Amino acid sequence: MMRWAALVCAVAFMGGALQGCGDDDEGGVSGVTHPDCSTFSKNGVGAVTDAASCRTACVTAEGLAETNGELEDWKGSSGEGKCECATGGGSRRTACEDANYTAS
Fold first, then answer.
1. Whole-prediction pTM
2. What is the largest CA-CA distance in the chain?
3. Residue 81: what pLDDT?
4. Residue 27 within a domain
5. Collapsing DSSP states into helix, strand and coil, what is residue 35?
């Protein structure tokens, strides 16, 4: 019986410890930071500055493919942008976001 109680306590602790580990696009957790688009570097993909480089980031860096005619969503401008990638089912993942990006 003592082992069972210890297991329950361990699971409860881990559940609390993992709260807030989600991505703001997927779990509603604010304060999650993403790499800057202007200095983006992942899987051989460099800076994301426009829709074309956002698409490359979604495909090559994030490993995603077009779903229902959707893939990249570039907002802003070079140095002040945000690149999101469609992940299917209407969900999106932020690949990068410049620190000075402001939604309009």
1. 0.70
2. 61
3. 97
4. no
5. coil
